[in-house]
Amino acid sequence: MTSVGIDVSKGKSTVCILKPYGEVIASPYEVQHTEPDLRVLISRIKSIEGEVRIVMEATGAYHLPLLSSFKDVGFFVSVINPLAMKRYASTAIRKGKTDKIDSVRIANYGIDNWFKLVDYTLPDEVYAQLRLLGRQYVHYITIRIESKLALTDLLDRTMPGIKSLLSGKRSEEPTKDKLSDFVAEYWHFDNITKKSETQFIRSYCIWAKKKGYHASESKAKAI
Hints:
- It is built from ten helices and five strands.
- It is of the alpha/beta class.
- The protein has a five-stranded mixed sheet with strand order 3-2-1-4-5.
- The longest helix has 35 residues, at 124-158.
- It is elongated, with a radius of gyration of 21 Å.
- The model has no long low-confidence stretch (mean pLDDT 85).
């Protein structure tokens, strides 16, 4: 038996594939929620010999594209209540919370609860809606990733180093992106360089607070 543990987040997931007794088939790695990445993941799972069960935690709407893609090809998928996963995590020897640790933990949950796992099922009408929403979401993520790559390439030429300066903990809100928000406010480097250092620091901190980001004076000075 093989357990595929998937830690789902906005736009991407972390996948870990385990067999009993800690045998690692695939160490944790990232998969973007795009059609090419999902096709590769599905092919990899199909290539595994023996019974395979996919385990993921219910995460609002983020897990739906993966769920619909997996059910389309007939995979066994168990969607776990976050409270049940939290109770399981509290008994783990290895503490901590990162995407990689969580994916290993979810895969281990599948092994430890193999015979209690329930395959996810939905009425045909609801499942049809799920498939449509899942495909729309995957399409949106693909466009979003391509747009961010294009934006990053442009910024590397006009504002070198700005991406690393504005990197940080990702937001759980799907509409929030610090780099994109920054460029919308300071769409040309003249919007920065025409201000004095004091003026820009004040402007940056006001913008950051308004958008819900940490208003760091040192980061504004570095920019």
